[in-house]
UniProtKB/TrEMBL annotation:
CDD domains: SAF_CpaB_FlgA_like. It is found in: Periplasm. PANTHER family: FLAGELLA BASAL BODY P-RING FORMATION PROTEIN FLGA. NCBIfam families: flgA_cterm (TIGR03170). InterPro entries: Flagellar_FlgA, FlgA_N, SAF, SAF_FlgA. This is Flagella basal body P-ring formation protein FlgA. It comes from the Bacteria. Belongs to the FlgA family. The gene is flgA. Keywords: Bacterial flagellum biogenesis, Cell projection, Cilium, Flagellum, Periplasm, Signal. Residues 123-185 form the SAF domain. GO terms for cellular component: periplasmic space. Pfam families: ChapFlgA, ChapFlgA_N. Involved in the assembly process of the P-ring formation. It may associate with FlgF on the rod constituting a structure essential for the P-ring assembly or may act as a modulator protein for the P-ring assembly. It comes from Allochromatium humboldtianum.
Length: 248
């Protein structure tokens, strides 16, 4: 079941808060004191941003999403909007992670301000259970599922063990590391210098011979092989068995 948590956070950086205040002042958003009935509620502005963030989320079962809306300066005074303010993502803002929501009003006066927010999706992703050496084949016991915030996983992630079991690591990997497609590759079946079986087949005829692989090869890879008898270099495709299929 998908869970959504809503939070409101205060700015912990006074300098940043002052800078925001100065920016609002320069934009004309600080006005002379208004009567309570004429002043836009800061809570309504924050609720507008919060509601927009919630409607923007596309989740699936098993995920949790946390929405954190930044606190605005309490000195902010805006003319009350005649209708509920509208919201949209600020230009260039992200849909997840740290982002900014633009809350706007056009009647009876026009104003616009930016509300800081954080939208974090938590998903069970594959992480390593133990160290993995370069070119080591990954086994089921080498990985586990762990719930993590994924907005910072810019290189992607896996959610099913079947997606990586049987593949080989591209480099040494450490426990707790989130696995990405950059970490794994198809298992190397043939190594350079290895003796392999070359074969060609057509209906009613199969020809086999020995050869020496001139380069590494994974399943389906096209590699060069030197025929041990003729010394001729041919190209063929690596089969799951380790044999190399060549054309007649």
């Amino acid at each position: 079941m998908t869970a959504t948590t809503l939070k409101t956070a205060r700015h912990s950086n006074p300098t940043r808060a002052r800078a925001l205040g100065y920016a609002l002042l320069a934009a004309g958003l600080y006005q002379p004191a208004l009567a309570a009935s004429d002043s836009e509620s800061i809570e309504r502005i924050l609720n507008t941003a919060r509601t927009f963030a919630a409607t923007m989320i596309d989740t699936t079962a098993g995920q949790e999403v946390e929405i954190e809306i930044g606190q605005l300066d309490s000195r902010l005074q805006l003319t009350r909007c005649a209708h509920p303010p509208t919201a949209q993502l600020a230009p260039g803002a992200r849909t997840e992670g740290h982002t900014t929501i633009n809350v706007r009003c056009s009647d009876p006066v026009s104003w616009s301000l930016f509300v800081p927010a954080r939208i974090e999706r938590h998903v069970e992703v594959l992480v390593l259970e133990r160290p993995i050496a370069r070119q080591q084949v990954i086994r089921p016991e080498d990985v586990r599922l762990e719930r993590q915030a994924v907005s910072g996983l810019t290189n992607g992630y896996f959610t099913e063990p079947e997606a990586v079991v049987g593949m080989a690591s591209r480099r040494r990997l450490m426990p707790g590391q989130v696995l990405t497609s950059a970490h794994v590759t198809q298992r190397r079946i043939v190594e350079r210098g290895q003796e392999v079986t070359l074969f060609s087949a057509r209906p009613g005829l199969v020809v086999r011979m020995k050869g020496i692989a001139l380069e590494d090869g994974r399943e389906g890879a096209r590699i060069r092989v030197r025929n041990s008898s003729s010394k001729r270099v041919v190209e063929g495709y690596v089969e799951p068995s380790g044999a190399v299929r060549v054309a007649l």
